[in-house]
Backbone:
């Protein structure tokens, strides 16, 4: 089997204003004909840069400093631009990450697909338009004729990504490069799109380089896996061997942290997983700290056609959280889970229904009473890159709640800030830094420290780990579990990721279209889902192809992000 | 710089663009190496020195001339020549700097102060206040700036300070709009919502989060406005609305020299070139101080 893609000692550097960063430092990689190779790594590992170098579409600041890339024996780094253009979309198909921005919003789908055919001289005129419709049918788009005359805005994210797959495969490429093709999609859609991508690539006999941060996706889809870290390949091998007998410590950490893989360990081994403390529902009956009854909220939004429509974001939601436990809320985008969190946090006003916190109706608090509620109810946001004031030092961020509630004086607040950082396992030396100087994991720890400053009783965590790399995710989840144990905190934990929910929640609420479809203890609900939608969500979690034997817990707790 | 490494993992929450909230920085290092920037700073520093200590710069008398030295072309004794009354043009220009600069600063101060205040009220209070202020600003913007200044002068009367006030009022809409947009952007940011959830009162949100972040663009616009204010003040002075003669002012000097344009070009051209140099320098300064995002 001759290699379709061969990368030899590739080096890529980025030039900043003052510095030069080596993003890829000498990687070797081969993809054989008809083979699917997954390139796995965390952000900054250089995997996307490698994929971009293969089609010579690096950002302007990046240059290949050494090495060669052969596609079908041709060194593409020496090709002239016109030949390169024939190669892109011709010999090499590319499926981009974000289906939202990769299509021209002003042109009809069919025209955009037929462009690929015309540019590569495969079909012209009416023939190209017919072929475009056939291609759309091949990626299982319902009613391809109608899709062909639609504008991208009329299609969902999953449908757009299927259009892009059709475009990538239109010219019968020898190699398909898919850069995080499903990261922007919901988990159930993700599986479907990957199924289509895989079957289409197989039918065409093309090779595929699949770039992904999700080891579960790699495990399900790839023949071989290449693990990258800091610009080098740390380990590569067949998917089965690499996942069952990882040799490199980094690969082991990646596997241990990948929630989607460990979820299946949990199914066979005692609850839950490596690196995360066993986490059972606290025994004995506990007082309910928060309960909602029949929360309903409508949003008025403009539809694609321009007229106003009412969207029911919350449809009679009733939940209960006993003190000292974690309630996990799972759902796909648009399920209303974030609206629920914001409504409880008094950032949105419900149209009807009640919210009781510690026996008191908080559903209509305004002004000063609402402000006083913040002493006991705090929020941690999804995106630690935008939830921290960039101008403030860490100390000022962490002590902000104390200042607003006039707790202590300057000196005691400083001590408190240091203690809070210690609680979230950050060095006190970070107190003088600003958010821009911290990593994502560190920022989220600062956000958690800020939320803990007033010793609240309820923490609302809205996707607190989904913006973070998997190894960092595992550490933050550990931290939260430990904090809950020590301080008897109550968590409302929102996530689209069942595997993450499984690791942290005692009770789980599954939401869809603004309504609760299933409630139950985490273990029971995830092992024996009753509602078909819950089952569908569980089936869609990637990594199902491999079930791992429980391995000794890896010490990752000590390593700070 | 690690941000540059990341090219598309949503797991990292980072994309090509710098992470939200990271402030673009003024690139001092690049500016210090730029001859045009240094030259423009030098010109402005010189003008400020003229305004503060004119007597140290020139020995000439701005008001009284020697009638024997009428209409002398530029030379060693009189760098800008002399006028029809034998007064040293350079001395008049240097002494005129103070009044002209004073009017300019009043103009920028009124425009920036008034505009920022209106912008903050509109952006932060929202609702009816926003609607009223925004409509008033739109009406003001519909009138050409110089025409508005002229109208205001007609109401206020003549004088250097009044010129500044008139030019300043016509500059308010630009500042108000920038300030309102900044306040709206910051008010809608996640870290402001986070501040509310940790118990910040609206006043604290305004003082600690909104104002410090919103002032940057207003300051940048202020420097830019300096250039056009010099021009507008000179224009009104040229039209004769400034200090009464014989007090020297940049604009009025150009106007007085007009009658002798055919025989004594220096009366008009040299002050005109000097005004242009100051305007261009202020523009260059503003462009240099405009924050750049790290070049990619």
Residues:
């Amino acid at each position: 089997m001759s290699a379709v893609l061969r990368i030899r000692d590739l080096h890529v550097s980025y030039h900043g204003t003052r510095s030069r960063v080596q993003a890829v430092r000498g990687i070797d990689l081969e993809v054989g004909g008809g083979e699917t190779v997954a390139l796995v790594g965390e952000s900054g590992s250089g995997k996307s840069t490698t994929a971009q170098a293969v089609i010579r579409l690096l950002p302007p600041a990046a240059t290949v400093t050494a090495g060669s890339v052969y596609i079908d024996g041709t060194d593409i780094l020496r090709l002239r631009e016109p030949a390169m253009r024939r190669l892109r979309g011709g010999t090499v198909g590319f499926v981009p990450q974000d289906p939202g921005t990769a299509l021209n919003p002003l042109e009809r789908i069919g025209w955009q697909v037929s462009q690929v055919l015309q540019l590569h001289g495969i079909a012209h005129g009416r023939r190209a338009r017919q072929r475009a419709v056939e291609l759309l049918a091949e990626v299982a788009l319902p009613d391809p004729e109608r899709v062909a005359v639609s504008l991208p805005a009329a299609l969902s994210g999953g449908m757009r990504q299927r259009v892009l797959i059709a475009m990538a495969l239109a010219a019968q490429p020898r190699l398909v490069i898919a850069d995080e093709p499903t990261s922007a999609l919901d988990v159930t859609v993700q599986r479907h799109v990957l199924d289509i991508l895989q079957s289409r690539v197989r039918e065409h006999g093309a090779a595929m380089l699949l770039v992904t941060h999700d080891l579960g996706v790699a495990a399900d889809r790839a023949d071989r896996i290449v693990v990258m870290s800091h610009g080098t390949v740390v380990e590569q091998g067949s998917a089965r061997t690499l996942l069952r007998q990882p040799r490199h410590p980094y690969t082991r950490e990646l596997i241990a942290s990948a929630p989607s893989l460990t979820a299946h360990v949990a199914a066979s081994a005692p609850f839950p997983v490596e690196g995360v403390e066993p986490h059972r529902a606290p025994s004995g009956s506990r007082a309910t700290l928060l309960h909602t009854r029949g929360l309903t909220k409508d949003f008025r939004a403009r539809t694609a056609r321009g007229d106003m429509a009412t969207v029911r974001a919350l449809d009679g939601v009733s939940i209960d959280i006993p003190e000292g436990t974690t309630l996990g809320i799972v759902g796909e985008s648009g399920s209303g889970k974030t609206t629920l969190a914001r409504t409880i946090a008094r950032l949105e006003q419900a149209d009807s229904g009640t919210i009781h916190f510690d026996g008191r109706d908080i559903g209509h608090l305004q002004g000063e009473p609402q402000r006083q509620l913040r002493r006991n109810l705090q929020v941690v946001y999804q995106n630690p890159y935008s939830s921290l004031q960039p101008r403030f030092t860490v100390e000022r961020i962490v002590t902000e709640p104390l200042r607003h509630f006039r707790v202590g004086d300057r000196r005691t607040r400083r001590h408190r800030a240091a203690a809070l950082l210690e609680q979230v396992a950050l060095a006190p030396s970070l107190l003088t830094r600003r958010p821009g100087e911290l990593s994502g994991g560190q920022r989220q720890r600062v956000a958690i420290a800020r939320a803990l400053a007033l010793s609240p009783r309820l923490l609302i965590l809205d996707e607190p780990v989904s913006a973070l790399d998997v190894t960092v995710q595992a550490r933050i989840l550990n931290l939260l579990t430990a904090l809950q144990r020590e301080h008897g905190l109550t968590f409302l934990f929102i996530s689209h990721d069942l595997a993450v929910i499984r690791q942290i929640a005692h009770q789980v609420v599954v939401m869809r279209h603004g309504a609760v479809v299933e409630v139950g203890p985490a273990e029971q609900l995830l092992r024996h889902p009753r509602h078909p939608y819950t089952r569908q969500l569980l089936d869609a979690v990637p990594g199902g192809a491999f079930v791992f034997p429980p391995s000794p817990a890896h010490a990752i707790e000590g390593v700070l992000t | 710089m690690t941000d540059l490494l990341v090219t598309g993992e949503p797991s990292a929450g980072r994309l090509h663009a710098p992470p939200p909230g990271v402030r673009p920085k003024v690139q001092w290092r690049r500016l210090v190496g730029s001859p045009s920037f240094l030259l423009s700073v030098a010109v402005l520093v010189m003008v400020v020195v003229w305004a503060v200590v004119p007597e140290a710069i020139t020995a000439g008398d701005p008001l009284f001339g020697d009638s024997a030295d009428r209409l002398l072309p530029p030379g060693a004794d009189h760098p800008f020549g002399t006028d029809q009354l034998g007064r040293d043009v350079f001395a008049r220009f240097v002494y005129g700097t103070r009044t002209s600069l004073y009017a300019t600063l009043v103009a920028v101060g009124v425009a920036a102060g008034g505009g920022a205040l209106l912008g903050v009220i509109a952006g932060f209070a929202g609702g009816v206040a926003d609607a009223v202020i925004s409509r008033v600003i739109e009406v003001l913007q519909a009138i050409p700036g110089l025409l508005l200044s002229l109208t205001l002068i007609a109401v206020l009367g003549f004088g250097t300070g009044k010129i500044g006030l008139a030019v300043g009022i016509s500059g308010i809409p630009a500042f108000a709009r920038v300030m309102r947009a900044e306040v709206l952007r910051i008010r809608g940011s996640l870290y402001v919502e986070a501040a509310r959830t940790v118990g910040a009162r609206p006043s604290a949100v305004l003082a600690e989060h909104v104002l410090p972040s919103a002032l940057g663009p207003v300051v940048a616009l202020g420097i830019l406005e300096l250039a056009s204010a010099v021009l507008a003040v000179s224009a009104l002075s040229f039209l004769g609305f400034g200090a009464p003669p014989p007090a020297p002012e940049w604009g009025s000097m150009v106007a007085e020299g007009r009658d002798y344009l055919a025989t004594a070009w220096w009366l008009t051209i040299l002050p005109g070139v000097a005004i242009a140099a100051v305007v261009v320098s202020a523009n260059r300064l503003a462009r240099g101080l405009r924050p750049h995002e790290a070049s990619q």
